[in-house]
Amino acid sequence: MTTLIIISVLPIVILYLGLYKVQKALLPVTIIGLLAAMTAAITQWNDSAVPIYHGMMLFNNFSVAFSVVSIVSTILILLLSKGYFERISSHIAEYYAIILFSLAGIIVMVSYHNLVMLFIGIEIMSVSLYILAGIRKKDFASNEAALKYFLMGAFSTGFLLFGIALIYGASGSFDLDGIRDWIVTHSRSNDPLFYTGVMLIIVGLCFKVGAAPFHFWTPDVYEGAPSLITLFMSTVVKVAGFAAFLRLFSACFFTISSFWAPVLLVITIITLFIGNITALYQQSFKRMMAFSSISHAGYLLFAIVALGAGSANSIFVYAAAYSIASIIAFGALILVKQQTRTDNFDGFNGLAKNNPFLALVLTVSMLSLAGIPLTAGFIGKFFMFSGALAHYNTLLVVVAVVNAIISIFYYFRVIIAMYFRSAERAEVEVPAYYKFVLGISAIATIVIGVYPAFISALI
Amino acid sequence: MTVSILLFLPVVAALLVLLFKNEAVKHAALFFSIIELAVAIYFLAGFVPDASVQYAVDATWIPQMGVHFTAGIDGISMVMVLLSTVLVPLIILTTYKHQYKNAKAFYALILFMQAGMLTVFTALDGFLFYVGWEAALIPIYFICALWGGENRIRITIKFFIYTFAGSLFMLLGIIYLALQTPSGIYDLRSFYDLSLNLTQQSWVFWAFFIAFAIKMPVFPFHTWQPDTYTEAPTAGTMMLSGIMLKMGIYGVIRWLIPNAPAGFLQWQNLAMILAVIGIVYASLIAFNQKDGKRLVAYSSIAHVGLIAAGIFAWTTQGVQGAMIQMLSHGINVVGMFFIWDIISRRLNTRDISQMGGIAKVAPNFSIAFLIILLGTVALPLTNGFVGEFLLLKGVYNYNIWFAAVAGLTIIFGAVYMLRMYKGVMQGEANELTLTFTDISGSEKLVLGIICVLIIAIGVYPQPILHISEAAVTNLVNTVSAKFVNAKY
Predict the structure, then answer these.
(1) Is B183 near chain A, with CB under 8 Å?
(2) What ipTM was assigned to the predicted interfaces of this complex?
(3) Residue B211, class by beta-carbon neighbours within 10 Å (0-12 exposed, 13-18 middle, 19+ buried)?
(4) In what residue span(s) does the NADH:quinone oxidoreductase/Mrp antiporter transmembrane domain sit (chain A) (predicted)?
(5) Distance, CA of A101 to CA of B339 (rounded, Å)
(6) Exposure winner among A45, A334, B120, B368, fewest CB in 10 A?
């Protein structure tokens, strides 16, 4: 709970700092605040987890783990932001504040114990994101992104809310335990109200995590938003979405998996193929990352389709691996774009010659996203495949393998561009904090890939 | 002393090599690879040639997934360890006259790849096996793509996707097997203890077979191979053909057939037919090759086809033949590619029709070429003969007609190899070949070692056969006993 309080108070402090034009203090204060929040979360590790505030929230190890992953990713992303926001606008305190508000919503999303809190968490997060997507006020693409995201987001929130209402109508409870108990006692009833509610919730959540066929907003929003915001959306927000998704389904709807699992199975397969095949045809690195994030949503859905004791663990490892790799990829993109002014793959041509470090970390990131052994991404895929095979979802795993093969083409395009294509170019300047973030992320990717035991036994 | 020294030494060496500069890089890489060879020889000296696993290491890796770092050396692994530790120093020596851009990275990748391959050859845990399998693939991809020929980008990505695709299905097979074990562990011995039904075993068979068939390669999964061999830098080609393709053959012996005996029995005939088709098909294509490196690439497919056929026959003789032939083929093919490397570096072409008469200007070179060639075409008293004889005997025990067709490889091989020799070495020297200078220095050393090995193994193969004999006999008999159960 302390975590949530810190993260909620922090943005208000930041706004005041902005008011008094203490620009230099913004980043340090934010980082220190986030570190404090993270420490607060870690101290709750293995505490007796009982629902608090009349069963509204539950801080168990699951929440702690996902809070920490979200906070760490946010810290890394904010470190990359030094000097980035200043170029976009003069009101930089807003950025930090809105990102932190969004993070507060995320903390709620990973620790709710009541559907009302789920809804509130998602709304806090989403409203902040609508603003962030459109923060470049004069930019056409940014405006388009914000509007599109807002309209589609509001639409999907409607589905979610309607679903929650229907479930309340059937079971008479917003509480996760209450709903679960209702399902157990009414296991033989075929209440259409309830099952429609479950379907609508699936639609709402799939929209939030960008799973096909509810993904249409993703590419445009990801491309239009500033790169760092895109990074925030495709890592922290997506991971939180999955944590919320998993929490609901493993706590409440576990016993009726025969009802929703086939639906999610179809969604997963569509998501994998749409994400991967579309990513194959992109010329823009940023758009490729957008579509690849759709396909990663597909892999993350594995853990929910094959719901079991290891699901939380699988999502945790996969999400951590994916977030770290994405941070590297976007960090490199921002640097390269500063020099070449383009998002395209061509912008990476010949990068390895003058920037061996940047090329190396980006290679590690791409190998991790592609799921090559000795990187974190492989461990994530390995967990997902094991979970799905344990449930005899052979079809799903074979589809996933085919998709993993397709994904090699576009991830290796970057590597090929950097190492094997030559272009006359000057050295891309890599600031020290970028070196720090990218280096740490690359090392973390390798360490998790080589010795995953210390992260994979957490939840 | 456990096998982990053998596995981690090249990784450390790869990192250390990065610290050196200029010419010193080569010497450092050679030095470390010789140390690795010395470790292997030390292991060999203390090795008891029975069926047991020695120098074993077993450490927990990912506890909740049942993954252990389990590796060890038995007779079969020992031969493979020898193969990779003998060839890597030789391959590094062959590069002594090359100047690579960014040489540090080149030699580091070669050493890293060696670590991956040694992991494959000694792993007794499914997960570790897979990790080694891929850890060998990434470096060779970069070696081929960074230092390869003109079309390298397109061809190497094809190669990578092909092998990666195959190995992912193998990963599924491994995970599936682990989930079937009572305690959900990836240990190879617990895989052996499983008794799955025929349908399950058939799926497992195919999951593994595709990965190994692509790696070897067996017809019709070979299409990546000639292009990649031709485009790769010669050291890369040697790593691929000399050691890496043996990962596929080793996989069949250790992971495919014993894990799915009934599934294997079900598809044995098909596997055999594919192997035999590969032999004839590759030989026929080799006849028409003008490019020497490409010709050797196709001849390699034919030779590997015979090895595969010998294993698929699954008799002690066949598998023993495969063991020694893997070693011999590794030595011969490295020699053959080196010969072509020397020629193409001196003449700037690999077109056989432009050559002739080199024997007159370069006598030492022509002797080495001839000895390697005779080893490749399996003349008695050369190393190729022992292996091919045992392999054919194994195939013969399975089916006489397959043996008859597979035996064509020897005849065909002799024809196209000798024709190549005639085209390159004999006849009148032309303007181009008159400039050919005889071998010297490191070239002489490498070719000398290879020639000695060819003749030594050919004359007295017993020590090598002895290393793997007990392990092979044990494995073949255990699995064959399961065949009997599967039949009735």
Answers:
(1) no
(2) 0.91
(3) buried
(4) 114-407
(5) 68
(6) A45
